[in-house]
Design a protein that fits this description.
Number of helices: 36
Strand content: under 5%
Helix content: 55-70%
Largest sheet: 2 strands, antiparallel
Number of strands: 4
Structural class: mainly alpha
Distance between the termini: 38 Å
């Protein structure tokens, strides 16, 4: 099996593995199978030394690789042929060898894009036939009840191929995956309760990347098939995998949060309380929150969720589908990863919360990722969350689920203890639309800073707008503390007004102001159809009157800019016009309240006294019907799709790099596979 060679120290000979001897002959261009008809059967029973193959290929120049192409082509074909045998170990070793070979050649290709590495692997005229055969065998391995390790390695191989280049559209191998689809076997994995536990994440990641490949026909076959997918078990499996991934991040964040603040002294607590008592919006100072790396690297799962929500209307039915965590907890790797969490009595594991659904978990994840928008990666993840929420609130059926009073869930939104605003959402079970409004308020109050994330604020306000428009169109009265929303919107308006000079140099804050004011116009015009009681409508007027100086100053600011030469003149003019009903309310009630105070000799009225004045003077108030406040989302759909598409392309490139980095082809990884071979074989 091996021969002795002198060590570098000269003291003791060392053993050289037989497989290394074969590799040495192979890379010298020798015919390794000469005079041995059973060579390849024996070869694939030897544990491959992955690091040796990678090192040798890395040392070779392109000219030397071309000289060795006959041997490389033979090895490539023999790896594929071995997939047909019944010996699981041979298949495992051939998959590892094939993955290593392809990965090493892709590495050369990334350095020198002119290197035609596929012609090194296969004779050019046979390329289509060989890849068709290869992908057909991959289909079989993913579909048949093979051992879990084979499926796992097959997925690793396919991911290695797909992530071979940073830009998916520059990957020469992907045209074969477009014509020889692996969509069906991947969705079958998702529909299997056992295999989805082991392979669900990789399957969804692979599907996500393949859906973002641009094809010559401009129609990606994977996108088409996803849009037509209507199998309930497959869609639920897809949803389950996404929820598991997001849930794991939420638990990790909770664990780190407890660890970070468990050592807080009484002085930290005291200063926090004082800060809350003296709350002012955090304007110039930015939050110093460090999110764990895993939270920042969830782009692949978020894109997968976006693709499902955006392309498949049937997927909306899974958003509130209750899942259990039993299969997830039984996965050996998950059990190992979760050990630190389960050992902490302060934390809850998935099994503690027996039933959950994707939307609840997604809201919780959003509350984490939206805390930090300073870095590009975090801002992109946060923005994609807003895009997903926009797509959900655009859908009539999803809105009906979120407003269903029979579907009430407890949603624990995470918040940083460094935040100093007083909004504390009710944590009792509620319709999901109410939880979403809480999430939007949390974001709104938590990011009023010098570098205002305007695009995210625009999305945030538009999501609130969509929810209210749905309620208006369907006469839905959501039981919610609307005063929290109104006061938050007014606080945001006050911030925009206060820091207009600094902010307007970099962005158009008037468009955001228009969206905010239009939400008030919706309530003013259609409040009798939206609000749960007449007293809520009274409270709306009370808030407008109480904070009238904010609206007065916004009107003065917008009027000044609408009459001057300014790049934001049109937006300022529109904002000024949107304030017509709010100003009518203020101009109508302020004199009447002043008269009442003078008549009753009251200097400091209580809220109920002002509300009484409001109720008694509705009849003499004249308002205009502002249909524009309903908004036209259809007219903005093309711009929305364009901006979302640009964001997705940017994030897909990062996912490709992260996935390639996470793929392991080392001997350590292989040794672990062999040790657990019996554990992973044929689960039942």
């Amino acid at each position: 099996m091996a021969f002795r060679r002198r060590s570098t120290s000269g003291s003791k000979p060392q053993l050289k593995e037989k497989v290394v001897q074969i590799y040495e002959s192979f890379f010298k261009g020798e015919d390794v199978s000469k005079d041995n008809d059973n060579f390849w059967d024996e070869f694939f029973l030897l544990k491959p030394k992955i690091s040796y193959i990678e090192t040798e290929i890395e040392k070779l120049s392109i000219e030397q690789l071309i000289t060795l192409q006959d041997n490389i082509r033979l090895l490539f074909i023999k790896c594929i042929t071995t997939f047909e045998c019944q010996h699981q170990l041979r298949i495992i070793f051939s998959l590892k060898t094939l993955t290593c070979l392809v990965s090493s050649l892709y590495k050369k290709f990334r350095i020198n894009p002119t290197f035609e590495f596929i012609s090194i692997l296969v004779i050019p005229k046979d390329t289509d036939m060989v890849f068709e055969n290869l992908l057909a065998k991959c289909n079989i391995m993913l579909r048949e009840p093979e051992c879990v390790v084979v499926k796992d390695l097959c997925l690793q191989f396919l991911l290695t191929v797909v992530t071979g280049t940073d830009n998916l559209n520059e990957n020469p191998s992907l045209r074969h995956l477009m014509t020889n689809s692996v969509f069906e076997p991947l969705t079958e994995v998702l529909s299997n309760n056992i295999y989805q536990t082991y392979h669900g994440y990789d399957s969804i990641l692979l599907l996500t990347l393949l859906m973002n490949v641009e094809t010559a026909k401009k129609t990606n076959p994977y996108v088409v098939k996803l849009s037509l997918l209507d199998k309930e078990d497959t869609l639920n499996g897809y949803s389950q995998i996404i929820r598991w991934s997001l849930e794991e991040i939420c638990q990790q964040y909770r664990s780190e949060e407890i660890a970070q603040y468990s050592n807080n002294t009484w002085f930290n607590t005291f200063t926090s309380v004082v800060s809350n008592m003296l709350f002012v919006p955090e304007t110039i100072e930015e939050h110093n929150i460090e999110l764990p790396q895993e939270i920042r690297s969830m782009s692949g799962i978020l894109i997968a969720l976006y693709e499902a929500v955006h392309y498949n209307r049937n997927f909306m039915t899974t958003l509130t589908h209750c899942h259990t965590s039993n299969n997830y907890e039984s996965h050996p790797s998950v059990m190992q990863q979760a050990q630190a969490v389960t050992n902490n009595p302060d934390l809850k594991s998935p099994s503690d919360n027996q039933f959950s659904n994707l939307l609840v978990t997604f809201f919780q994840y959003c509350s984490i990722v939206m805390q930090d928008t300073k870095t590009e990666a975090n801002a992109n993840n946060s923005m994609l969350c807003f895009v997903i929420l926009s797509s959900i609130t655009d859908d009539q059926f999803a809105n009906s689920l979120m407003h269903d009073v029979n579907l009430q869930f407890k949603v624990d939104l995470y918040r940083s203890p460094t935040r100093r605003y007083m909004f504390v959402p009710d944590k009792s079970p509620k319709p999901l639309a109410a939880a979403l409004l809480d999430l939007m308020i949390e974001f709104m109050l938590g990011h009023m800073m010098k570098k205002l994330p305007l695009d995210q604020y625009m999305k945030c306000i538009s999501i609130i707008h969509r929810i209210i428009c749905y309620q208006k169109r369907n006469s839905v009265r959501l039981c919610y503390n609307w005063k929290d929303l109104w006061s938050s919107l007014i606080t945001l308006l006050k911030f925009l007004m206060t820091y207009e000079h600094q902010l307007s140099q970099d962005m158009n804050i008037y468009d955001l102001g228009i969206q905010i004011v239009n939400i008030f116009n919706l309530f003013i015009t259609y409040g009798d159809m939206l609000l749960p009681s007449p007293s809520s409508y009274d409270e709306l007027y009370y808030e407008i009157i109480r904070m009238h100086t904010v609206f007065d100053n916004i009107y003065v600011l917008s009027s000044r800019n609408s009459s001057s030469v300014s790049e934001h003149k049109l937006s300022a003019t529109k904002l000024s016009n949107c304030l017509i009903n709010i100003r009518a309310i203020i101009n109508h009630y302020i004199p009447k309240i002043d008269n009442w105070l003078e008549k009753n000799s009251v200097t400091t009225p209580v809220g109920e006294e002002i509300l009484e004045v409001v109720r008694n003077n509705y009849d003499t108030l004249t308002l205009k019907l502002l249909l524009d406040c309903l908004g036209s989302f259809e007219s903005n759909k093309s711009n929305h799709d364009l901006s979302s598409s640009s964001l997705i392309k940017l994030m897909v490139s990062k996912v490709v790099k992260d996935t390639r980095q996470s793929l392991k082809h080392s001997n350590t990884d292989l040794q672990q596979i062999l040790q657990n071979f019996s554990l992973y074989t044929n689960p039942s």
